[in-house]
Amino acid sequence: MELRHLRYFVAVAEEKSFSRAALRLHISQPPLSRQIRQLEEDLGMVLFVRASRPLALTRAGRFFYHHAVQLLASALELKTLTRRIGHPGRTLSVGLVTSTLYGLLPLILRRFRAALPQVAIRLQEMTPAEQGQALTDGIIDVGFGRLSDGNVRLQQRTLRQEPLMVAMTAHHPLAGAATLTLHDLQTETLLVYPQAPCPAFTGPQRQASPTSVVTPRHIVEVGGFQLALALVAAGEGITLIPECLQCLQRDEVIYRPLGEAHLFSPVVMSTRRLDPSDDIRLLLTLIYQLYDERNIPHIKPAAE
Ligand code: BEZ
Q1: Contacts by 243-246, CB closer than 8 A, 24 or more apart
Q2: Residue with the nearest Cα to atom 7 of ligand 1?
Q3: Strands 164-169 vs 120-125: parallel, antiparallel or unpaired
Q4: Is 160 in the pocket of ligand 1 (CB under 6 A)?
Q5: Ligand 1 center–CA 175 separation, angstroms
Q6: How many Å apart are CA 71 and CA 68, to the nearest integer?
């Protein structure tokens, strides 16, 4: 059995058709069918229910598919990592969600560049899901986001829990408060955006601790933090942002700390599990150094 057999099998399983898989693989159908038959003979198992339309996997086929996908991903990862090692004109490719660019990331990258001027840095905006795929495909080396999605192929480190701020108009009745609590926000319209920054209003923590969370009466989901802040300026409601976004000074919008220790926006760094790269190690060292320098509370795993 060769990697080629796995690629052919996965294409047929995903396309649910030999003819579509042949098109995807840019080969004709007879050799594809021959390769799949060879694979089945080698395994001594039938992998497809050929009579079904669309084509279905047998029980053995489903098991084989699950592992074949992982093996192909590992093979690609191995190729990418091996190519990268010892490559003189190296690049550090970084995937990021926009909000991390307003925090410490620019300074960390400046320090990285000063330490390793020969390494080019490439930045790409990506959602956490896109980062996961791009890491597996070898397109980026590291991703920064605000979500740890339990992807087993990745090493996801929560670097710190960034405090949240309440954004509101300057003449809002709560503008005079030094700090706000969820209780203060109970009658407000809260503008939230997908996946961030406040899991208590959008995700599992809400169900996990229903008694500890006071929920604002009106919650409106909007496309992202820039839109949320524009709507705050327009008097449509208030929003919660990670502390670093305070640097986005808009006329009419002010920020007050949210004094709820259990609500925060994590900063999550994702890398490939197998990645032994010195560049990643340096990046981590620079991040923790900066946290120490500025007395920023953070989470440093014992082994790093
Ligand atoms: C931070 O703000 O803590 C941070 C953001 C991006 C990368 C690393 C750290």
Answers
A1: 243/162, 243/163, 243/164, 243/165, 244/99, 244/102, 244/103, 244/104, 244/162, 245/99, 245/102, 245/165, 246/165
A2: 105
A3: unpaired
A4: yes
A5: 28
A6: 5
Å from CA of 103 to ligand 1 middle? 6
pLDDT digits (tens, 9 = 90+) for 224-263: 888 999 999 999 999 999 999 998 888 899 999 999 888 8
In sign, the C-alpha dihedral spanning 74, 78, 81, 84 is negative
Summarize pLDDT for 136-159 with one digit per residue, the tens: 888 999 999 988 888 888 999 999
Assigned token pair, 215 = 């929920």
Decide: 159 in ligand 1 pocket, CB within 6 A: yes
**105 pocket-lining for ligand 1 (C-beta < 6 Å):** yes
Match 């949240």 to its residue by tokens: 164
92 closest CA partner among 277, 242, 248, 302: 277
- Written as one letter, the residue type at 34 is R
- CB distance 100 to ligand 1 below 6 Å: yes
Ligand 1 centroid, distance to 202 Cα (angstroms): 23
Contact 206, 262 (CB under 8 A): no
Distance from residue 100's CA to the centre of ligand 1 (Å)? 6
Question: Are 290 and 104 contacting, i.e. CB atoms less than 8 angstroms apart?
Answer: yes
Does the beta carbon of 108 sit less than 6 angstroms from any atom of ligand 1? yes
Please state the atom number of ligand 1 nearest to the C-alpha of residue 298.
3
Query: pTM for the whole thing?
Result: 0.71
List of residues 6+ apart from 125 with CB closer than 8 A:
95, 96, 97, 98
